[in-house]
Design a protein that fits this description.
Elements: E1 5-12, H1 15-26, E2 30-33, E3 38-41, E4 49-54, H2 60-63, E5 66-69, H3 75-84, E6 89-95, E7 101-105
Parallel strand pairs: 1-4
Antiparallel strand pairs: 1-5, 2-3, 3-4, 6-7
Length: 106
């Protein structure tokens, strides 16, 4: 059974401070990608991981964490079910580099 959660993004206001914080709290390496305004939490192939993302407009305690759920090759059907279940697609499906596709719903 594949992991249903495969990525998360934690919005932060101070990337270096947050990287140091999560590195200590989670006891893992956090790799800064300053040119791209994010830091990746170290992981092994097949593990679930995520990133700290510099977000000037977020208020982390209010806006929360973005979690990527694994629809396992059936994103179009998952989007259809969001609508059937009266959810809202707030960002249409789009490519995210070499990592695949995503959309946002609530």
């Amino acid at each position: 059974m594949p992991n249903r959660i495969n990525w998360f993004e934690i919005p932060v206001k101070d990337l270096e401070r947050s990287a140091a914080f999560y590195s200590k709290v989670l006891e893992c390496e956090v790799v800064l990608q300053k040119d791209e305004n994010f830091a990746v939490l170290a992981y092994a192939k097949g593990d679930v991981s995520g990133a700290l993302v510099l977000c000037e407009n977020y208020r982390p305690s209010v806006d929360g964490i973005l979690i990527y759920l694994n629809a396992e090759g059936r994103l179009d059907e998952a989007i259809k079910q969001v609508r059937v279940c009266r959810g809202t697609v707030i960002e249409d499906k789009h490519q995210i580099g070499p990592y695949g596709e995503r959309c946002q719903s609530e």
